[in-house]
Amino acid sequence: MRGHILLADPTMSRRIMTTSTLRRAHFTVDQAQPSAEATQALKTAKYDFVVRAEHFVDGTIHDLLAAAGPAQTPVIALLKPGGVHDTRGLHENGVAAAIPSDRIGTLLVPWLCNMARARASTREWQTHDAVVRNIGLAESATPFLSRAPQSAQGTLAVLSPTQQDLTHWSVTLAKTTGLSARNCTPTECWDSSGGEGAYDGYLIIVETAQDLNEAPKLITALHSHSATRHAATMAVNTCDLPLDALVDWAAELLDKGISDVVVTPVTPSELAVRVQRMLERKQRQDRLRTTTQNRVEDSLRDPLTGLFNRRYIDEHLELSLKSALHAGQPLSVLLADIDHFKRVNDTYLHAAGDAVIVEAARRMRWHLRDADVLGRFGGEEYLAVLCGANYAQAKRAAKRLRRAIRETPFILPDHAGSIDIT
Predict the structure, then answer these.
(1) Given the DSSP bridges, would you call strands 75-79 and 49-53 parallel, antiparallel or unpaired?
(2) Which of 62, 90, 313, 347 could join 95 via S-S bond, C-beta 3.0 to 4.6 A?
(3) Is the distance from CB of 332 to CB of 156 less than 8 angstroms?
């Protein structure tokens, strides 16, 4: 299941069609017809997302946003079909995305999947942060997260996939957002001497059909490069092309993980609001990631191997088990032990034993997924927590680790030869 959705729409035929579309995409859906019913549902049940028609007789979308809580449940607004919509007010009040109701079939699921990926990343770091707090390395904090833009500060790169002159865009954005905005070529994005985080956001301006074709490739490059993978990304289309082609283009960008995409004409003030909200979300994620990483690195790492230590692994495993049981998702645990390790220490002394432990840890970390958590459980014991992995997947992972250890001899310090380890 990708998420639990509250669908609030007074039009029955559209409710039925939208529910069918969402269930085929593996979401669960609760329907609400009057606005008051939707508001009450949010107060009594937990939803991952809310999809709501903009116009109701018995209430406004702002009532629903208030019921959803400050910055907790993302709300997607369904607009009346056709025409150009001024959605600045919706974005100012915290709507995550606004979609014409006649484009539900092509845009709604890509938007929801995009948000689900972002939510999963946030929850992963929140789990790490909870581990840190439970162990006592930090005080619990519950900051108020407003839905209104918080005038995020940062740097914004304005770029064209085909290197058009975008000076007027950067000047306008600097004035309307108060951000440091400058033109940037695609190559400069990752060649900047500023290193990772050189820019907080990348605004891709699409002015030609060639830009339209190149933008997805640029998004893929930005998200895969170490210097730009954590940056926020937005694409703004100014091409006068058939709407069907633009909608398909937007869906492709959402599938690639873009933070926001503007398909139809937008005013400078609305664009400023959306850029501010994008950077606010990015910087909130940065703070969570950086704070947790620093605490974990300082206190929960094994000094020899750099892996998580027993203290962290015990707490992480307990929280992961609870989370997996609550979500109905599989979880597997691998426990590995170096065979006859005492013989290595006795024969080649402890420096050689330490080298074997470090190299075994390196090989195992290399052959696990990024999301898997590996720790040093004892002297020559390692434990890996594989969230989302069933028994068959865990068995394949265990075989990979055994091959990685067995197939290549271990080079020992101060010795001419090498030894085989299993």
Answers:
(1) parallel
(2) 90
(3) no
* 40-65 b/e (C-beta count within 10 Å ≥ 16 → b): ebbeeeebbbbbbbbebeebebebbb
Alpha carbon 60 to chain centroid distance? Answer: 30
Closest CA to 33 of 14, 48, 46, 49: 14
Instruction: Classify burial at 195, counting beta carbons within 10 Å of its beta carbon; exposed 0-12, middle 13-18, buried 19 or more.
Output: exposed
| Amino acid letter for position 343 | R
Query: Are the C-beta atoms of residues 202 and 231 closer than 8 Å to each other?
Result: yes
Q: What pLDDT digit, counting tens, does each position of 160-169 carry?
A: 888 787 888 8
Q: Is the pTM of the predicted complex or chain greater than 0.70?
A: no
User: What pLDDT band is residue 143 in, cutting at 50, 70 and 90?
Assistant: very low
pLDDT digits (tens, 9 = 90+) for 327-365: 888 999 999 999 999 888 888 888 889 999 999 999 999
Cα separation of 21 and 27, whole Å?
A: 9
- The residue behind tokens 């840890």 is 361
In angstroms, how far is CA 208 from the centroid of its own chain? Answer: 30
Quick check: 132 pLDDT over 80? no
Distance, in Å, from the CA atom of 376 to the CA atom of 186, rounded to the nearest integer, reads 41
Q: Cα separation of 28 and 48, whole Å?
A: 10
Residue written as token pair 């926020």: 232
CA distance 416 to 394: 37
Q: Identify which of 259-263, 266-270, 325-329, 417-421 has the greatest average pLDDT.
A: 259-263
Q: Which residues pair with 261 in a beta bridge?
A: 235
Per the structure block, which two tokens stand in for 143? 């900051």
Rounded alpha-carbon distances, angstroms, from residue 135 to 131, 278, 295, 320:
6, 32, 11, 15
